[in-house]
Amino acid sequence: MAFTLDYDQWIHLDAEDLAETGIAEAYERLLPELRKYVPHPEAVEEGIDNDTPSSVRCGGREYAIYGPDLDEEGGGSWGRATVAFFALVNEQLAGSACRFYAINGGNDLGGMFLTSAQAQESRASLPRPPDPPSAGHL
Fold first, then answer.
1. pTM, two decimal places
2. Rounded Cα gap, residues 70 and 78, in angstroms
3. Strand 61-66's sheet: what is its strand order?
4. What does the buried/exposed string (b/e) look like for 6-19 if buried means 16 or more CB atoms within 10 Å of the residue's CB?
5. φ, ψ (nearest 5 deg) of residue 19
6. Among 31, 33, 55, 84, which lies 20 to 30 A Cα-Cα from 99?
7. How far does CA 66 lie from the centroid of its chain?
């Protein structure tokens, strides 16, 4: 039988909340789970200044989220915030068998810690093709 996702382990994120200076808050909520895989997670710093573009920093990397020179067509900041969040978590999981996989998107965005095998096996158990976990390395 294929591995099925345990939605009790699903962590709700909401791409809109992430884009609207919610990455640091979401990361704080994620830390208890992340510490199961990474004993000393990196600090996340969110740059919020009305005069400069918003960004998030973690482990020496900076991700632009919103700014006057960034494309907002099609919810650009939502996508950039989502990519940044999963990247900063997954970069820290490099030494672990698990990755943090995005499940769903937009306001229904969430994530789960899964092994690659669990993510692949779960695809067979989902009723609709759009719902499988996306690549852990966003």
1. 0.84
2. 12
3. 44-47, 54-58, 61-66
4. eeeeebebbbbbbb
5. -70, -25
6. 55
7. 17
SS3 string of the chain?
CCCCCCHHHCEECCHHHHHHHHHHHHHHHHHHHHCCCCCCCCCEEEECCCCCCEEEEECCEEEEEECCCCCCCCCHHHHHHHHHHHHHHHHHCCCCCEEEEEECCHHHCEEEEEEHHHHHHHHHHCCCCCCCCCCCCC
pLDDT in tens, 68-117: 788 777 668 899 999 999 999 999 999 999 999 999 999 999 999 999 99
Residue 50's pLDDT band (boundaries 50, 70, 90)?
A: low
Q: What is the pLDDT of residue 1?
A: 55
- The dihedral built from the CA positions of residue 95, 37, 97 and 132, taken in this order, carries a sign that is negative
Output phi, psi for 133, to 5 deg: -60, 140
Residue 106 — φ and ψ, nearest 5°?
60, -135
For residues 52 and 47, give the distance between their C-alpha atoms in angstroms, rounded to a whole number.
9
Under 8 Å between Cβ of 3 and 101? no
